[in-house]
Specification:
- This protein is of the alpha/beta class.
- Among the domains are: 69-101 and 129-216 and 235-290, Thiamin diphosphate (ThDP)-binding fold, Pyr/PP domains (Rossmann fold), CATH 3.40.50; 293-323, no CATH class.
- It has 10 helices and 8 strands.
- A 6-stranded parallel beta sheet has the order 2-1-3-4-8-7, sandwiched between helices. A two-stranded antiparallel sheet has the order 5-6.
- Helix 6 links the parallel strand 3 and strand 4.
- Helix 1 runs antiparallel to helix 9 (292-302) and helix 2 (71-80) packs across helix 7 (237-252).
- The chain is globular.
Length: 353
């Protein structure tokens, strides 16, 4: 039987990243904001790597979905959002949780299923949530959280606040009914919500373009709902930050929703059970060369930031990750007494009786 690139994905022509936009070096972004984003990039990367190491040690409960290589999206939006804004993420939500200020130790402990985790060890890797930080949940049901984000945005609209809901999702979600329903309602009601498609080119193991009629699964569908087609470099924190600022400002001022497609690439497989061997080698190498961290390191150097300052940030983050790991390991596993708590709004099981 002849090989067919529609089914043997490793034979497909690689989809290459955009070249670095050098003009962004002159973007009107405060240096302190940029240094904060550099710190966050390293925090998210080192957290993801440590989570992988702990998984291999059989310490992480269940599977885990990492966003290694995709950190610039969470970083850029995290820097642009206000304290009261809402974040809704997928099961690949570690980066978005930390970008909103979730405690490193509590997040790591949650992955390990310990009592000192942010959810007491009950949520695990796929359900990181911290309402106190505006992190309104990581959702395992594909596309479900887009409609929930609309509800949060409607609440803000009805209460007259300037809060904005931001929903992050993968490229595969664009072929789910909830994606289209959420966009349609958000536009009709002019909701203060921003939808962000993290297009890493693969919906689990299948290239998104194999099953989608348009080249850009989110941006090319925006006009069907009266929205602007926005396609950005999801590996460039500055590009993400500027796009986030514009979309958030539009939502706060009553201008309604935005749909942003951020092109990016996960450096590993879909989950820890996936070696990712279905991807063309040339594609993997090309995207590795566009890793957001060394690119942003070079940009900061070109802007006059001393190497010593950047190295200091990296060391500080490494120390924080080590401390978070020790904190996580120090926690106990939840006991039987917690089985029937946090199962309904009143924290108990009486609703069933």
């Amino acid at each position: 039987m002849p090989t067919d690139p529609r089914y043997d994905y490793a034979l497909r022509e690689p989809r290459l990243p955009r070249p670095v936009n050098r003009s962004l070096e002159n973007a009107d972004i405060d240096l302190d904001v940029r240094l904060g984003m550099y710190r966050k990039l390293h925090e998210l990367r080192q957290f993801g790597k440590r989570a992988h190491d702990l998984f291999l040690q059989n310490l992480v409960k269940g599977t885990t979905h990492l966003s290694l290589g995709m950190e610039a999206i969470a970083t850029g939006f995290g820097a642009a959002m206000k304290t009261g804004d809402y974040t809704f993420a997928t099961y690949r939500g570690h980066a978005h949780s930390l970008a909103r200020g979730m405690d490193l130790g509590a997040a790591m402990a949650e992955l390990l299923g310990r009592e000192n985790g942010v959810l007491g060890g009950k949520g695990g890797s796929m359900h990181l949530t911290d309402v106190s930080k505006g992190m309104m949940g990581s959702y395992a049901i594909i596309g479900a959280h887009l409609c929930v984000a609309n509800g949060a945005a409607w609440s803000a609209q009805m209460r007259g606040t300037d809060q904005v809901a931001v929903a992050f999702f993968g490229d595969g979600t664009t072929n789910i009914g909830a994606f289209h329903e959420a966009l349609n309602l958000a536009k009709i009601w002019r909701l203060p919500v921003v939808f962000v498609c993290e297009n890493n080119l693969y919906m689990e193991y299948t290239p998104i373009d194999v099953v989608t009629a348009v080249a850009n699964p989110a941006a090319d569908r925006a006009r069907a709902y009266g929205l602007e087609a926005i396609l950005i470099d999801g590996n460039d924190p500055d590009d993400v930050y500027l796009a986030a600022q514009k979309a958030l400002s539009r939502a706060r001022s009553g201008g309604g929703p935005s749909l942003i497609e951020a092109l990016t690439y996960r450096s590993g497989g879909h989950s820890r059970a996936d070696p990712g061997k279905y991807r063309p080698e040339g594609e993997v190498q090309a995207w590795a060369a566009r890793d957001p961290i060394p690119m942003y390191h070079d940009r900061l150097l070109s802007l006059g930031t001393p190497e010593a300052r950047l190295s200091s940030i990296e060391r500080q983050v490494a120390d924080a990750i080590n401390a978070a790991t020790e904190f996580a390991k120090s926690g106990r596993e939840p006991g039987e007494g917690s089985l029937l708590t946090d199962v309904f709004a009143d924290g108990g099981s009486r609703w069933r009786n």
